[in-house]
Amino acid sequence: MPEGHSVHRIARQFAKNFVGRPVGASSPQGRFAEGAAMLSSREMLEARAVGKQMFLRFDGDVWLRVHLGMYGAWDFAGVIDADATIAAANGRMGQTNQRGTVLDEPILDAAGENSLTSIGAPRRARVHVRMSEQTTGLPDEDEQWPPPVVGQVRLRLLTEETCADLRGPTACELQSPDEVVASIAKLGPDPLVDDLAEGEERFVATVRRKPTPIGLLLMDQAVVSGIGNVYRAELLFRARLNPHTPGRDVPEETVRSLWHDWTRLLEIGVQTGQMMTMDDLDPDAYRRAMAHRDDRHWVYHRAGLPCRVCGTAIVVEEAASRKLYWCPNCQA
Which residues are annotated as catalytic? Predict the structure, then answer.
């Protein structure tokens, strides 16, 4: 499932390539035909991400809410004017790790998580994309435009230069301004949206009154926005926190530390396009981590492998129908 960093990257891509332009809309699949007709020819005015959900505002007070869910993704084609804050992910401005090491050559992940062309569920790009920090001009004359529809496209948004295809979302619906406010009100704080201090207090107050295990609370989008299975496992390990500890029993300073760590990891995820959760890597180790998921995380997807810290076998178990990875020694 795409986690919060991916959705913020998508929103920034829409802000750079669609906001301020009239947008054509269609539903090649047919399942969103009426909604697409309502959107078509309207100017996009705003692109906003909150946690795992994105809200696109069009003139006439019409909003589009999209939740990618487990399998959804946006595929971009045509002229891509990459946001400077995420350009590192496509290699055009180099890539910078947590220690400030600049890597001049792009690092590509064969699984597709680092792909600007398919942002969301990891998959290989199906469409050709020209990318640069500052790209001008229409697609090449020998390229078909608009690009052919591939697969089950729920919604296609199209400007003169850029195409965005939505596949497999959990939610794709039009909302009124009041409905958008109500949708966002149901979500927990997002460090990239809410005031950090206020968000911290909301998060701490909610966690500290809940008997629910912290491993479940971090996945509850009403408690905190954007954290998915990968970030959940990694945040808990980094805090050396047993995932079964009731929220109300987690020390307040630990809860605050979780919020601060989530803020930091989310910013890194938006900048790099990767859920990078290991610190203090030298350039070679950082390059390996950016290219291979197995070198990127402390415990996630490492069931049965030795803990990178203590050597104990990493445990995997089911928690609310999702796999939870943790070290029974470091997180005892």
Answer: 2-3, 52, 322
